[in-house]
Amino acid sequence: MCRSCFRNFNWTNMDTWKVEVQAFAVDFLNWTIVLTCLFLKVPQIFHLKNKRPSEIKGLSLQAIAMEIVGYSIMALYNFKNKYTLNTYLEYLALLIQEYIMLFYVLRAKGHLANKYTSITAVIYIVSVSAFLIEIIPMETLNYLVPLCLPLSGVAKVTYIVGMIRASNSDAISMETWAMSALTNAGRFFTVFMDSADKHLLLNYSVSVILSSAVLGTAVYYQLQVQTPMIATRRREPSVRRHYHVD
After folding, report:
1. Which long-range contacts (CB under 8 A, 24 or more apart) does 137-145 make?
2. Cα separation of 85 and 78, whole Å?
3. Model confidence, pTM
């Protein structure tokens, strides 16, 4: 390019073009993550549906409950801050799927008609409603969001511990956790570009690490099952017979 052409080049248009492309890429990734999360837990749900109650060993009620609480807080926090819907719509989709998972695990463990289950459900519904109609000030969420990190972390560690104790990953869907790690990584990028909210960035970075850890543990136990145990027969020492001829 000649010097005069270089000087006359409209760099402002180039910067505008870059901003537009960047905005399109972030928006595309946002909706890709949302669409993925619409089906994120579906493999896990079908996995549970096809398992006998005795086979659901690697899933913990406490882990699912902690995930539901964490997703609820994050959805309310994003709603309160009036972030664009496509940056947190997946929480609503994930909550619905978590409710279905909870139903199957409660039924498998015989806790579906338990009075404590009913009491806990009522407390949860009343608490969420109190935030939405602002009986509880929405500013309270600023103090609750940091709790989502340990909640999410403990929930995922509980999945790992459950697999280790059961010595198998029969109740875990590897497809679900692979998608979880990828969507959390994508959401880290979109949040960084959209709001750079430190609370959200920290949550997503830890979620990527722990979701990958759950996936890695599940893969390990799946490989253990698929690898045939090679039985080694102990060879007895040969006995040499001596014949004496008189």
Report:
1. 138/76, 138/80, 141/73, 141/76, 141/77, 141/80, 142/77, 144/73, 144/77, 145/73, 145/74, 145/77, 145/199, 145/203
2. 8
3. 0.69
